């Protein structure tokens, strides 16, 4: 991943599901081309192939299960997701928390399959703990600010700054992103000024009247 990076978590909003997932991917691609900033789409599993088939941009899964091929009804198998078009995955989002051992297993699966791993954490301590597993990226998101419209980079700057310091002291190569309530150019600039390598965001862009405009505003102060 090059810095700065923007990962858009589509979550399960209707505005980012099905055909809307494609529209959002078009907005991401075009904003990325205009700004020169790497922008990654993280659509629902069912929309990954649709997006990959129509639009050329980096795609992350929202979740991968710690399984190998076989009998695991209802699970997300890494091999299938890669064939569908992913280049990486979010792991352990606050809305889909995983056991520590399972997080480690999915990071290892990503390494074996040469795709990127971005582990979500909820505070400074878990960010440091996860860094010892050596994922490609850690994205710190205080759960109480998720979907709130209150930007973590401005409301809790110490969480971003100390997560960056803590993670980099364990492994300098790990990228540190921050998320929760990020939507404007000021929010992203504040995150980068605190040492973050980029942002992980959702509602501010997914629900914007004009997502491409919102994405260009997001990176306008860099
Ligand atoms: O994964 C991104 C996320 O949890 C932040 O959500 O809606 O606060 O940007 P939001």
Which ranges are low-confidence, i.e. pLDDT below 50, for 5 or more consecutive residues? Answer: none
State the separation between the terminal residues, measured CA to CA. 17 Å
Could you give the order of strands across the largest sheet? 2-1-8-7-6-5-4-3
Q: Which ligands occur here?
A: SN-glycerol-3-phosphate
| Helix/strand/pairing category | alpha/beta
The number of distinct helices, counting runs of at least 4 residues, comes to 10
The main sheet comes to: 8 strands, parallel
Give the oligomeric state of the chains in this entry, treating copies of one chain as homo and distinct chains as hetero. Answer: single chain
Portion of residues within helices: 40-55%
Q: Radius of gyration, Cα only, in angstroms?
A: 16 Å
Secondary-structure element order, N to C: EHEHEHEHEHEHHEHEHH
The best one-word shape is globular
Please report which band the strand proportion falls in: under 5%, 5-15%, 15-25%, 25-35%, 35-45% or over 45%: 15-25%
């Amino acid at each position: 991943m090059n810095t700065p990076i923007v990962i858009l978590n589509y979550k399960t909003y209707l505005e980012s599901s099905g055909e809307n997932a494609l529209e959002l991917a078009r907005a991401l691609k075009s904003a990325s081309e205009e700004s020169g900033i790497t922008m990654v789409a993280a659509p629902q599993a069912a929309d990954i192939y649709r997006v990959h088939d129509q639009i050329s941009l980096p795609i992350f899964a929202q979740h991968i299960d710690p399984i190998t091929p076989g009998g695991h009804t209802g699970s997300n198998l890494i091999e299938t997701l890669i064939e569908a078009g992913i280049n990486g995955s979010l792991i352990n989002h606050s809305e889909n928390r995983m056991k520590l051992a399972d997080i480690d297993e999915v990071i290892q699966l990503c390494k074996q399959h040469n795709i990127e791993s971005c582990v979500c954490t909820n505070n400074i301590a878990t960010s440091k703990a996860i860094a010892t597993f050596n994922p490609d990226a850690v994205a710190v998101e205080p759960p109480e600010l998720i979907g709130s419209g209150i930007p973590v980079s401005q409301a809790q700057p110490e969480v971003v700054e100390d997560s960056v310091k803590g993670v980099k002291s364990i492994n300098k190569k790990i990228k540190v992103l921050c998320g929760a309530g990020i939507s404007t150019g000021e929010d992203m600039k504040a995150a980068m000024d605190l040492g973050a390598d980029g942002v992980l965001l959702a509602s501010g862009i997914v629900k914007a009247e004009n997502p491409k405009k919102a994405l260009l505003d997001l990176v306008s102060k860099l």
